[in-house]
Amino acid sequence: MLKLIIILILIMSFVYIFTQLNTNSLNRTPLNRTPLNRNPLNTTSSNITQPLITQPLITQPLITQPLITQPLITQPITTPPITTSPITTPPSINCIVSTWSPCNGTNRTRTFTEGINGGRLCRVDEKITTETCNNCQVSDWGSCDGSTRFRTYTEGTNGGRLCTANEKIISQTCSDCVVGDWGPCNGTNRTRTFTEGTNGGRLCTADEKITSQTCSNCVVSCINKKPGISNYIGFNSGTKTFTEGTNGGRLCTESEKLLINTTCFDCFIGPWKDCQPEHFGARFGWQYRDVMQGENGGVKCSQEELNPLGHKRPCMITPDSRYWARIPK
Fold it and tell me: Based on C-alpha coordinates, what's the Rg of the chain?
């Protein structure tokens, strides 16, 4: 910058001196000189030689003009302002490490940019761009032992998907198929229930899902019945046999199995007998009838038929009765 100022000063000095020299040359007056007339008579040249007439040299006085000195006008040297451009220093940048990408189940990646211009350089661990990772892994449930089943899980690592609360459950109650017992046979069918296996427990088979089944109790019957020779009208007799209960029906007792192929009788209810006076000479009395329970597999009488009140009823002595004559007249 100092050299530039000096050069500018020298150039301005030379310009100023050159300007002054031009000004002085313009102010000077030229000398008045009369040209020499070599042929004053204005005659033409001829072969006659004229005598040389010389005139005295008239010397004009040298008129000099005073040198007018112009005042030296000095102009202040205008120094242009020194414009200084700021020195631009590139900014320092520290090491930049990106975030890890999502785990794809086996690994994840990232990038890094090294620090420059004095910025912090990346460490060795920051320059790692690939890293193994694992998502949450849950095993299958084990077999149900009748009450509980188990499984395991491995938590996700290095940014892998973490296990949910449900996936962290490692034990679970379970049950195998449970089939209830058959109910009693009602003479025609019996029933039962079943509960299906849960949470991996053993499921019920098709047979175990059957909830209704026909059945029969022990039946002792009188077969080949025919009217027998008896004092009772309608008395039926036959041969005793039995049919064992099936599908859980009541089995025959030993007594029911005895006397097989012996005579059997159905329930017998005899006719009403003659009206018998309540006392000697009474006009009113009672009628009776016989009831005999079935035996050896014969048809049984109902409780109503066995009721003693059902075998006796009041009656009146009529003229055709053999007790009519005993009634006082």
Answer: 78
